[in-house]
Every structure is written in C-alpha cells, then in structure tokens.
Amino acid sequence: MMTGTVAASPGSTSLLRRLETALAPDGGVAGRRALVAAVAAAVVVPALLVVLNVLLVPVTGAWFVGLVAGLVLDLLAGTFALGVVSHRLTMRKLREQQRAVRSVELRTRAVEERAAHVESALYPDGARRPVTASLATPQDLAAASRSLGDRLQATQNLFALVSPRGPVPPLTGFVASPDVLLLLVQKFLTLRPFLTLECGSGTSTLFLALAAQQHGVEGRIVSLESDLAYAEGTRALLAEHGVAHLAEVRHAPLAPTGLPDHDAPWYDRAALEDLHDVGLAFVDGPPGKTGPQARYPFVPLLADRLAPRCVIVMDDANRREERGVTERWLPRLEGFSHRFLELTRGAGLFERGL
C-alpha cells in the first residue's frame, strides 16, 4: 500500500500553468485564486453533485440519473470556464494592440515635432515657410511606387538602346529624366535627322551622341548653352565617353530677341546663323528663371528653319509657363500635330511629316 502525496503529471502541471497565465497574466495571488475558482467550477462542484445524488437517492437506478445530471452540470461548468479563459485571452490581445497603436501615435508625434523644429530652424522669421505636408495616404504611396517603377523601366530601356562607356551623371533633379531621354533617343533613331538641335546641353547631348555613334546615324548635333561653365562641363562629359567629335556644344549667351511680343532674352541670334533643316529639336532651355515663358522664342525665330519632316520635344510641359508657350506655338507651327505625354515632368510632342 502506497502512502504520501501524489505528484501531478507534467502534462497536467503545464495545463494548469497555462490556465493560470491566461486568467491572470500578471501572476501572483490573483492568478492562483482565479485558477482555483475555474477548477472548482469545472470539476469539484459537478463531482460533489454526483456523490450527493448517489448517496441521498435510495431508489435503485436513481444514482444513474444523478450521474447524468452531474455530467451535464460538468459540461456547463466546463463551457463557462472556457468562456472565461477565452474572454481573458481576447482582452489581453486587445490591450496589447492598444499599446502598439499608442506607441505608433507617440512615434508619429515625435517625428512631427522634430520636423516642426527643423522647419523653425530653417525659417525662423516665418518667411518662405513651406506648407506642412500631411501623412502620405495609401494612394500617394501607390502613385509614388508606380512613378519609381516607370523611371526604372525607362532607364533600363534607355540603356538597352544606348550603352555609355562610363558613369553618367545622376538622372535626377533638373537633369532630363530617363523617360524623356528615352523618347528623344527613340525619335532620333527613327528620324535620323540632318540636324538635331538642343536648347540646353547636358546628359541629353551625351545620349544623342552615343546613339549616333552606336547606331551609325550621320548628321549634326548642336546644343545651344547659355552658361559657359555648363557648356565646358558638357564638352568634358562628351570627351570622357569618346563622342566629343559627334556633338557641338555651342556657347550662346542670352540676348534680347527683338520680338515685339516677348521681353525675356533668348540665345544670341548669332549662334543660329548656320542652323537649317532641323529634323529633331529638344527644347529644355533657357532656364525658367530667365523670364516669363522663357522658351517661347524657339518657334518665332526658327519656324522657317524646321525640316518638312520634323519633331519637337519640349520638356517640363507640366509647368504653367510651358503650357502657355504651347498655346502660343500652335498657331505658328503649320502642319504640326501636338500631344501631351505623361512623363516625369510632362513632355510636349510636336510632329510634322510622320
């Protein structure tokens, strides 16, 4: 005969500990009391009822009725205990989620406060104070993702057509974007023009010269550049890639145009004297800071020098100034069609004879 206490099995001990943790996550006396109450409700009370029915009912077979009643009560008590446990678990997860949301709110507030401090440091007097942007919406993030994907795809397609011999300047900021460069190179390879004219020089000059070299396109490439230092930088870039002989970067300081309907300066007319039969033009200058509708003089001064088969690409067509230039150009561009292309900064495409 064995005497002494009976040790609980590892499985039952683990189960009891999980119940205690669920009923009172913080542990301590509250957890043990809740555990005792749950066990009593689920096991002890129904067992006592069964014993009482068996002892107090003398009728033969009545103990069976008591047993059944006890089992039913046991089932009800067990269901109740499981409901209590489930409720406590749900409330515990809810509290964890609330703490996580609160943490995100605090971090967001901290970022906004830091941004406000930076803004105050940059603009202490309130002048030129930028409009504080709101948090990005899912639609904003989706649009940004699509824009990034389009730029990457355009860059990949551009490098598939033209292979630089070395590093190229970043295609960001005020530099021509990859999608407009891709459009320009595609039109260049299709037209194979006698003269390609650029208003403004830079990476576009490089890619046109590389396309001429790698695809055997004969003809002149002339880039008008008002900034002497920038012109020298473009010439050095062409030399680094071995195509300096295929494109001329012509320094053309800004000067009055003499046009009665335009006051802002444009490229000096002396730089235009030998330009004729322009088959492809890329209008990406002068800079907007030059004056209102700075790119307007291109058509009044060069319309009679455009080839019968000609394409004009105007960059930055999203801007209000360039939209105004387009409206003034169209009546002067005889036989040209016009389309607006949804590129990074928008592009105006004018075509004739295609």
UniProtKB/TrEMBL annotation:
Lineage: superkingdom: Bacteria
Keywords for this protein: Membrane, Methyltransferase, Transferase, Transmembrane, Transmembrane helix
Signal peptide: none
Alphabetical list of InterPro entries matching this protein: SAM-dependent_MTases_sf (IPR029063)
MF terms in GO: methyltransferase activity
Pfam families: Methyltransf_24
Transmembrane segments: 34-56, 62-85
One GO term (biological process): methylation
Protein name per its UniProtKB record: Methyltransferase domain-containing protein
Organism for this UniProt entry: Microlunatus sagamiharensis
Phylogenetic placement of the source organism: Bacteria, Bacillati, Actinomycetota, Actinomycetes, Propionibacteriales
